[in-house]
Amino acid sequence: MTDATSQTETDAPTIEFRSDMSVELIRSSAADADVLFAARVSTQGEQTLESAAAGTEASGRDRGLINYLMRDRHGSPFEHNSMTFYVQAPIFVFREFMRHRTASYNEESGRYRELRPVFYVPANDRNLVQVGKPGAYDFLPGSPEQSELVDAETREASARAFESYQKMLDAGVAREVARIVLPLNIYSSMYVTMNARALMNFLSLRTKVEGTHFPSFPQREIEMCAEKMETVWAELMPMTHAAFNANGRVSP
């Protein structure tokens, strides 16, 4: 969902409100064959990607090896690949991303460029009420009144903050100082590069899926990013993805 709202001044930037996350695969070197050739060097000596990927159809032996590696948590063969994603999301989502120190990040800088007035506002179906205790929260739908309150206050606070930001820029204040008034729901963008093992660790913590060995309770906004990343990865490495799910979504 994307919704644009203009400020009253004709020369002011148009403020945009979004409820979605953007994830785009920029480049990749990632296939199930990467896992196979890395694993088989242990017992067969030097391998090539061509020999590991020989044939057009994956064999049961290949699937069995990947499942064995996943089940018994032999993790290093899953590291010989790479995926780079371009992500657009609110800053508070990026702060959760960067808790995962098994990836490489480069984020746009509010010191060197004027930030765009794009802000996150929860969609109407976003759960708003938190019940339970730490580590076992449930999130339930809010009332219509709560939804209206969140929407209205988020839009008003975002517009007011960006107006203050622009006033300081117009007065000649440095971007690195003016940005301090901006809220966490302003969108940023970054490149994130990781291998399949790191991505599985990320997905195990940032998605809530029935039947996992270790249930997770992620914030919905980062889960939206994780779901899109998982869809891309499942197409690149279908056997590895299947083994991940079959073994309780535990990173090896």
Automatic annotation (TrEMBL):
Active site, renumbered: R206 (involved in ionization of n3 of dump, leading to its activation)
Top-level class of the enzyme under EC nomenclature: transferase
SUPFAM superfamilies: Thymidylate synthase-complementing protein Thy1 (SSF69796)
GO process terms (BP): dTMP biosynthetic process; dTTP biosynthetic process; methylation
Enzyme Commission number, as recorded: 2.1.1.148
Keywords, comma-separated and alphabetical: FAD, Flavoprotein, Methyltransferase, NADP, Nucleotide biosynthesis, Transferase
Residues annotated for dUMP binding in this entry: E96, F97, M98, R99, E107, E108, S109, G110, R111, R179, R206
Cofactor: FAD
Catalytic activity as recorded in UniProt: dUMP + (6R)-5,10-methylene-5,6,7,8-tetrahydrofolate + NADPH + H(+) = dTMP + (6S)-5,6,7,8-tetrahydrofolate + NADP(+)
The protein's annotated pathway: Pyrimidine metabolism; dTTP biosynthesis
Cited Pfam families: Thy1 (PF02511)
Residues that bind FAD: S76, R99, H100, R101, E107, N195, A196, R197, N201
InterPro entries, A to Z: Thymidylate_synthase_ThyX, Thymidylate_synthase_ThyX_sf
GO molecular function: flavin adenine dinucleotide binding; NADPH binding; thymidylate synthase (FAD) activity; thymidylate synthase activity
Cofactor note: Binds 4 FAD per tetramer. Each FAD binding site is formed by three monomers.
Subunit structure: Homotetramer.
HAMAP family: ThyX
Job description of the protein: Catalyzes the reductive methylation of 2'-deoxyuridine-5'-monophosphate (dUMP) to 2'-deoxythymidine-5'-monophosphate (dTMP) while utilizing 5,10-methylenetetrahydrofolate (mTHF) as the methyl donor, and NADPH and FADH(2) as the reductant.
Family to which the UniProt record says this protein belongs: Belongs to the thymidylate synthase ThyX family.
Name assigned to this protein: Flavin-dependent thymidylate synthase
Gene: thyX
